[in-house]
């Protein structure tokens, strides 16, 4: 099946939940741009990730309300696969519990994309998931995960 | 005499399939004769070098040292000892940078290194790692190095070395090496030339250039991976400290210390890339059957055709495609004169961006059709930052490419454009 299926191109051309986020001084990968705690009924987490091999960049932002993801948005540049996967993911995790969001797997991303992802495009497809996972790690005050953890098991799925 | 490209292509077994290989700047394909040389060594002559008294060891040593002489002749070095085998062009540059940082009897520790924005990371990061203070030569809107900035830097007394590419791996532009070397020497600075790209496309003569160091690898030169070359002037190499400690690089080792071997062994600790050196010699011998003039003419025709056909694709911009920096406006008249005379000369490769199409999507779709191009920042992030783009797509040529391949590429780019836009 064609990688550039119509649903992927539709998300690429008309990304969902994409909003301009502050671009100035992007934080180094792995460091939170800003974070508020759970006071005021929930925090806002912003996290930036890039794929240094190709220069794709994503910044992900969401609020947490009653332990659920609230009002997610993202911004970024990159290839059709990375941008479409992020757009689909943002639709998927809106209003789900943070526990469910933390449990999202590479396979779920591949299912959303609905096309076969070759090993060379793995990081493109999973950049959004990687950013989400690390945003949640920041929320929980946990150490960030590295790429090998994000893609672990994914190779068997593709 | 023009090259018989069909005959050349038949010598590359990998081209005997549906494949349009336009990624030779990443690594060139290998002619059968190089593949055979590697196979022959492992099948019939394999032994370690400089270590055994048996016949096989002697043969391997002779073949390895003959390869050194082949490289010496290829770049016209004064003596074979000035040729150091490393594992890569990158390691060659690191070797020099390490001497620089060691501040012992090696290259003087003056403190500053001048680089250009055309450099590959392999000619940037080693200088950062050795703690040098870096001065950057910018490029103008044609991708040429702004030599007046070099002049300014060289007036400062602490310039130790100028590290400059012989040919950009992104834009294909060639800084004027002779002029740069003369200027640097006049100011008492050394020059290291990163010839990784240059060496496969033009004749390199280190004595004529008078560069102090020159680095390249075999695999972009139709030879095997795993071996790089460092040329250095004898008097400098002799003063430099060893790089990698181990077997072969010592004269004597005791419980308290060691005396390094003479050059070149001083820099070749550990078992060297023996088969690869023999493969490199086979590649050089193969390449030398062609006149450089013929190779240059053929590749020039490919580039001109590619420029012509690609620039007519809607939304495609061939790099540099950048604006002059604000301070360049001061010589408006000078710029106009240069523009009038300007016919941008590229060598080996060109890179481009395509409106609304990310290089990775483009090269993925092209790859599905057996067309191999490189996408990304090509290990030249500072250059891409200067051009204000995150990534680009590169078309690079080898001796085996044809005009027809470029025509097919142009059609395929337009097809991909339709899918993605």
What keyword list fits this structure?
heterodimer, A: 158 residues, alpha+beta, Sufe protein. Chain: A, 4-stranded antiparallel sheet, 7 helices, 4 strands, B: 421 residues, alpha/beta, Aspartate Aminotransferase, domain 1, Aspartate Aminotransferase, domain 2, 7-stranded mixed sheet, globular
Can you walk through the features of this model?
The complex is a heterodimer of chains A (158) and B (421). With 158 residues, chain A is an alpha+beta fold. Chain A has helices at 6-13, 80-93, 98-102, 106-113, 122-140, 147-151, 154-157, and strands at residues 34-35, 44-51, 56-65, 68-77. Chain A contains seven helices and four strands, in the order H-E-E-E-E-H-H-H-H-H-H. In chain A, helix 1 packs across helix 2. The radius of gyration of chain A is 15 Å and the shape is globular. Mean pLDDT of chain A is 84; it is low at 24-41. Chain B has 15 helices and 15 strands. In chain B, helix 3 (55-75) crosses helix 10 and helix 13 (359-368) packs across helix 15. The model of chain B is unreliable at 104-108 and 335-342 (pLDDT under 50).
What is the fold's blueprint, element by element?
The complex is a heterodimer of chains A (158) and B (421).
Chain A: H1 6-13, E1 34-35, E2 44-51, E3 56-65, E4 68-77, H2 80-93, H3 98-102, H4 106-113, H5 122-140, H6 147-151, H7 154-157
Antiparallel strand pairs in A: 1-2, 2-3, 3-4
Chain B: H1 5-10, E1 20-21, H2 32-45, H3 55-75, E2 83-86, H4 89-102, E3 112-116, H5 125-129, E4 133-137, H6 147-155, E5 159-165, H7 177-186, E6 190-194, H8 206-209, E7 213-217, E8 228-232, H9 234-239, E9 250-253, E10 258-260, H10 274-287, H11 292-311, E11 316-318, H12 332-341, E12 349-354, H13 359-368, E13 371-372, E14 374-376, H14 381-386, E15 392-396, H15 403-420
Parallel strand pairs in B: 1-13, 3-4, 3-5, 5-6, 6-7
Antiparallel strand pairs in B: 2-8, 7-8, 9-10, 11-12, 12-15, 14-15
